[in-house]
Amino acid sequence: MTALPIRVAALYKFTRFDDPAAIRGPLLALCEAQGIAGTLLLAEEGINGTIAGTPEAIDAVLAHIRALPGCADIEVKFSGAAEMPFYRLKVRLKKEIVTLGEPGVDPTQDVGTYVDPAEWNALIADPDTIVIDTRNDYEVAIGQFEGAIDPETPSFRDFPAWFRGQRAKLLGRTNKPKVAMYCTGGIRCEKSTAFLKAEGIEDVYHLKGGILKYLEDIPEEESLWRGECFVFDERVSVGHGLKQGPYVLCRACRYPLGPEELASPEYEDGVSCPHCIADRTPEQRVRYAERQKQARLARKRGEQHVGDSHEDLRERRRAEKLAAKEAARKAAAEQDDG
């Protein structure tokens, strides 16, 4: 079978960078020179991201990253794509490489036990194991492991509050709980095990390499995974063998849509879907329709339309949430003043 021309590398490493800003410049320059697209995040706690390019370009960038402090054994998951799944390159400085919002949690000091994909089935099939999906609600909606608990959180930042609120219910049945957690590539579940250990839970495990490594290594007939795995690029989802799945991203709300949702009368490309139509004002729908028209024209000309990438959609959704919170705050303040 002919190999796909684009190599996608999902990577992360919790390690101590004394000066992330000094790392950014040379890394950005190399990625630009190699024609890499995607996103890399740098913080004092390490590096995280997904990038894509030719196999030779990816190899060159990974060689550079592996030479960074503590990164010789960096976790990398490879997959292929028929075309570039990202529109641009971003190398950003952050406070955290994955945002939990718990300053005392340090995965470089203490994390749970890594479990290889080959051992994962036995662990989560054990009735004494509490299995928790640490991903966002829209990711879990299209696939998860059998028997896993879905926190129904819109972002990873919400995980600590969810766990503290559900702790007694989750762990009340045992004095020594055994907790197994997983996520897409391993970074969120690794950080969440550090959080649980900081909360006093000792018997904590996480899937090494995440769902992506499991889908790569475990044959479908032996798999306890059900559905598709959401990925943060233009492929939207992958299945066993890391083959691109059937899902399409709603360009209005970033929710993954399957064939049934795409056939819904509530779906309009770039404007609305069954998950967001009730939240869209007529003015927003007109604005989204015009934006989608401009995006189609740009693609016809072979250009990128600003706001068309997966990352831009995430930024827009974040901005809309912040605007809604601010409007609610002002309304509450006015009510109090009244």
TrEMBL record:
Q: Which InterPro entries match?
A: Rhodanese-like_dom (IPR001763), Rhodanese-like_dom_sf (IPR036873), TrhO (IPR020936), TRHO_N (IPR040503)
For the protein in the UniProt heading, the enzyme class is: oxidoreductase
Any single GO BP term: tRNA modification
- What residue stretches are annotated with the Rhodanese domain? 125-223
Q: Where are the compositionally biased (Basic and acidic residues) regions? A: 300-338
Name the Gene Ontology molecular function terms of this record: oxidoreductase activity, acting on paired donors, with incorporation or reduction of molecular oxygen; transferase activity
What CDD domains does the record point to?
A: RHOD_YceA (cd01518)
Sequence segments annotated as region (Disordered): 288-338
The chemistry this enzyme catalyses reads: uridine(34) in tRNA + AH2 + O2 = 5-hydroxyuridine(34) in tRNA + A + H2O
Please state the Enzyme Commission number of this protein. Answer: 1.14.-.-
Record HAMAP family: TrhO
The function of this protein is: Catalyzes oxygen-dependent 5-hydroxyuridine (ho5U) modification at position 34 in tRNAs.
Q: Which family does it belong to?
A: Belongs to the TrhO family.
Name of protein = tRNA uridine(34) hydroxylase
* The encoding gene: trhO
